[in-house]
Amino acid sequence: MQFKFNIFKPLIFAFLVFFSIEIITYLMIGRIKIIDASIENTFFDNKFKKLDVGQKYIVLYKSQIFKKNNAEFLQVGDSSGFYGVRPIIVNSYLNGLNYLNLSCCADSGWEGYVYTANHYLKNNPEAKYLVLYASPYSLPMQYKKGFSEDLKNIFGDVKDKNFFKIFNYIPSLYHRKRILNFLYQNDIEDKSKEYKRVIKNLGVVNNFESYTGYKYSEFIKYLSSSKGWLPYDRKKGWKDMPINKCGNGITRNFYDAYGNPTLKNSLQKIKKIADRYNTKLIVLFNPVACKDSKKMGPIHNEIKSFKKLNPDVLVPLNFINTNDKEDFSDRWHLTPKASIKQSHEIGKILEDYLNLSRKN
Description:
Number of strands: 4
């Protein structure tokens, strides 16, 4: 018996040393910083001499700012909503209710919208409405899964059964980024430079400081005060965007590799999350510069079928809403000026919806 115990003594000793180090690290650093570090460790790629895309930083920033809030309306989806919907304007129509823009980017994938919605609804019991806002150009097959697996790592699976996620929170992993910077010989970037890099990477207005009145070092403060909206500059390819009949630029992201439509199933997954938290789902599509055409027929039919199956879902806008070309920064995004008009329209739609709901 003594012999068998001796075999395990080195393992027991190693475990006690490890456990002691982790306890001391936890006490020195604190729970909040360890949780924040775990998110960065599992979300970012941390590759040699290569920084992650700006979109991932936006997801991180918004998760830190808005994880717990009292907003009744939570918006998820692609960057057309991120840059196109100003919650401050929408709120002026909501009679004291609050609207929050949690949208990021199409490359998070529609599965990523599901993980995002699940995370924020789980942490915000005041939420009554889940808004999915998407561009017709960014249907489910544009980025397929995108970086949705990374979102699952930080936000959790919708099944809440990832036992191994606990290992993301080992206290000593707090030092991982600093160690990697040392090994990769990276300079430790101060926050002001990081924010400026992210803004440039995203294509946010070049004159951010003069446009917003906030310094680069106050980027998080601005994102918080705008409730998740950012202004987006007009791009060089603006003149080349489609203005005639809508076509392959939209439909190619509608069908999977086998020619099957994907929109209805993707919408149904988001509806399932809304139902889980007893919230109403609202689906909004961003305007486009092109005009409706016969090629959009299968997509219209998918939406019609989804609405028939889910009569409690509000889909107030047509899939194709044609705006003047001058309203766009590129085919996906509205200009800051056009986002004002769009936000007023959404505000009026939601105001009417709330008034109708009260009467019923």
